[in-house]
Amino acid sequence: ENLKRYIESIPKAELHVHIEGTFEPELMFEMATRNSIALRYGSVEEVRNAYRFNNLQDFLDIYYAAASVLVHEEDFYDLTASYLRRALADNVIHTEIFFDPQTHTARGISFSTVINGITRAMEDARKKWGISSKLIMCFLRHLSEASASETLQSALPYREKIIAVGLDSSEKGHPPGKFFNVFNRVREEGFFAVAHAGEEGPAEYVWEAIDLLEAERIDHGVRSIDDPILMEELCDREIPLTVCPLSNLKLKVVKKLEELPVKIFLDNGIRVTLNSDDPAYFGGYINENYLQTAEALGLSKNDIFTLARNSFMASFITEPERSRFL
Ligand code: ES4
Ligand code: ZN
Q: Which candidate among 32, 54, 93, 269 keeps its CA 20 to 30 Å from the CA of 123?
């Protein structure tokens, strides 16, 4: 229909996607075979059937297990190249990709293997397909601040390949303030700060992310709807939210997409964006997120255009880069 064609036709930026969450079962099996690693599932279909989650932790358990198939630099290259090609098919012309180094270094894969594979695919995709991308390193918040500090240290030789540092994994019980000291260093070293907050955790965690970590952008942030003063603050400080509708649906953050406060954020002048999070697990890339959200919330073409424009305004592209897009 009409809305679908409109969504497909507009150029978009994706600002919230975990590279490990773009791992499609077909590619997972291919890599398991070539790396002689046993998967606990017998077929692609069995894997897809296992993708029923009751909360964030259910998902994370499967997501971390699947990542164990990634071993060589080529594996990280192929994973990233596959995502970038798929994103471009949705008219994503710029993307800011998260990676979780600790998921890999904890199993003996070197930081350099991970980042070299990912960034080589990003460069090739720009040359071959014209898609631009940046890389955001995330700390796993269920691990200690000391582990995050070690990870930051390993990243310093690659600093020019990393635009920002974020915080992901199990939110409840791991408030942003747990990482206060390491994020001071993150910013001193010249990285932007972002953080997942207000997904399963409360609005208070969004306050901590913006005030203690000085996050320039909040990943998810949907629980901000519970706090009108926070909403004003996000608006005044121009702190964008990267909302992930199908993720929120699949992880039961909301019972149905109709509950998502996207339209309220838009109407309150908050720079809200739509993103896919872990598209291989949550049943849709970016256009599917736009379409299902637009249908559920009755968004107009004008709303959709604002969401797409917000995605560029909320991105870390620089002024000279920006002229290419706007
Ligand atoms: C994630 Cl949906 C979500 N939330 C927190 N951490 C994550 N890592 C990958 N996907
Ligand atoms: Zn996420």
A: 32
Give me the residue label for tokens 């974020």. 166
What is residue 1's predicted lDDT score, i.e. its pLDDT?
A: 80
Is 18 labeled as ligand-binding?
Answer: yes
What helix, strand, coil percent values describe the chain, rounded to 5? 55, 15, 30
Considering every ligand atom, which ligand is closest to the CA of 198? 1
Ligand nearest to the CA of 253: 1
- The secondary structure of 45-108, three-state, reads HHHHHHCCCCCHHHHHHHHHHHHHHCCCHHHHHHHHHHHHHHHHHCCEEEEEEEECHHHHHCCC
**What is the mean pLDDT of each successive set of 10 residues along the chain, which is 326 residues long?**
95 98 97 94 92 96 95 98 98 98 98 98 97 98 98 98 98 98 98 98 98 98 98 98 98 98 98 98 98 98 98 94 73
- Choosing from 199, 200, 216, 288, the catalytic residue is 199
DSSP 186: H
Distance, CA 224 to ligand 2 centroid (Å)? 16
Domain coordinates in residue numbering, the chain: 2-317
- Alpha carbons 192 and 217: distance in angstroms, whole number: 9
Strands 217-220 and 272-274: unpaired
